[in-house]
Amino acid sequence: MRTPILYLLLWTTPVWAQDAHQHGAPPAQHEGMAGMDHGAMGHDTMGGMHGLLGSYGLSREASGTSWQPEAASHVGLHLPADDWMVMLHGRVNGIANWQSGPRGGDQVFSTSMAMAMASKDFANGDTLGFKAMLSGDAFMGRRGYPLLLAAGESADGKTHLVDRQHPHDLLMELAATYSHPLSQNSSVFLYGGYPGEAALGPSAYMHRVSSLDNPMTPLAHHWLDSTHIAFGVATAGFVHDDWKLEVSQFTGREPDQFRFNFDQARFDSTALRLSWNPSANWSLQVSHGWIKGPEGLDPDIDERRFTASATYFRQFDFGSLAATAAFGNKRLGDGTDANAFLLEGEFKPDDDWTLFARGESIESKELLPGGQIRGAGEFSLGVIRDFRLAEHWKIGLGGLYAFDFAPSSSVGSPTASYGSAPHGTMAFVRLVAE
Fold first, then answer.
1. Among 29-43, 93-107, 284-298, which stretch is predicted with the lowest mean pLDDT?
2. How many whole angstroms separate alpha carbon 331 and alpha carbon 364?
3. Is the pLDDT of residue 32 over 70?
4. What is the predicted pLDDT for the residue at 33?
5. Residues 312, 320 contacting (CB under 8 angstroms)
6. What is the rounded distance in angstroms from the CA atom of residue 165 to the CA atom of residue 182?
7. Which of 192-201, 315-324, 409-418 has the lowest mean pLDDT?
8. Handedness of CA 278, 240, 118, 284 (dihedral sign)
9. 313: Cβ–Cβ under 8 A, 6 or more apart, which residues?
10. Is the pTM of this model over 0.85?
């Protein structure tokens, strides 16, 4: 699928980098995937630069205002721009997808993301930050791509998407932050986005250090981090050492089927999140959200969501390991009570290879006729071989296999609609600018 805006951003990145060097600026610090420098394991994390929201290291920053383990690092190209710190990152995946059975399908498509972040410190210690993120997913069409057991949002505004993964909007984030220090280790901050990410759940899966190389969307997405694109977010927070408490007022309605527009800002929902990084290797969070009418097809059904997660990252002599365990619970206004569990990880023995895996289970009422709440699950395993094209560019070839556990139409009776041993396979090629 064609993603012209993304390609423009990606292919101009080397020009910006070259321009910075030609004007005598210091070489941009080059960060490898999941905290790995190219050609060596382990390095100075972000050169001592502090985060957007406080005095901690910048490598703790993840999507929105969420945190990751500080031992991990940002993936991106860091450029000097006078007294601004600028980071750029992008990737494009070309994917051939096969999903088995009568409810599956085949499709060749592209997913992509381009991100820019900039920050500036002031003399009094305040920090101003900006974030922007684009996705070319919108060009694949409103129906997204086949993915067994996935459900959420709509392609036509009339029916739910089931066994398909919806595309992201063209504009995924356009946000600003402002932080003010109260002491050496404490600060207060404001975050505003249209769209932006509410303080609810773990880091969004495409930024999470344990899943950023996995091209397949988690089934548990709508239990954990689906509010990462909310058209209208205002968050206020307090940071003290390794703790962060924040509250968001945001638009609860999920994006509609029109992927190139700005949805109405409602600010009708609330989220509260407590984060704790007990060491450089761990990041933990618990959060609760009161979401007003998240589904456009069921606008009168509100949702209370609870999430808890722990993310781990560590560099060993034999490679790096990232893992996340997460739990999400949705309580709907119609009485539905549904849980989801996720365990995922990535292992990188060196800069050329990535192994990733994910296991998850969900309770859903959208997969079977009549709104029966039934359990389903999936286990997936994949590998990527990357090849360095240039200092800031690499291309990779990968594949994954997913085995699905279909829901039962009645106790002990597997539904026949998914066929025998449902499964999915993806083969993909990716281009990464970092």
1. 29-43
2. 12
3. no
4. 33
5. no
6. 44
7. 409-418
8. positive
9. 34, 35, 68, 69, 71, 72, 209, 210, 281, 320, 321, 322, 323
10. yes
DSSP letters of 369-402?
A: GGG--EEEEEEEEEEEEEEEEETTEEEEEEEEEE
CA distance 47 to 382: 32
Tens of pLDDT along 253-265? 999 999 999 999 9
Confidence class of residue 48 from pLDDT cuts 50, 70 and 90? low
Q: For 308, what's the count of Cα atoms within 13 Å in the CB-facing half-sphere?
A: 3
Q: What is the pLDDT of residue 229?
A: 96
Taking CA atoms, 431 is separated from 95, 114, 384, in Å, by 12, 12, 12
Helix (H) or strand (E) holding 127: strand 127-134
Topology adopted by domain 4-433:
Porin (2.40.160)
| Contact in structure between 238 and 223 (CB atoms under 8 Å) | no
Q: What values do phi and psi take at 9, rounded to 5?
A: -65, -45
Sign of CA dihedral 65, 210, 140, 15: positive
Q: Rounded CA gap, 95 and 107, in Å?
A: 8
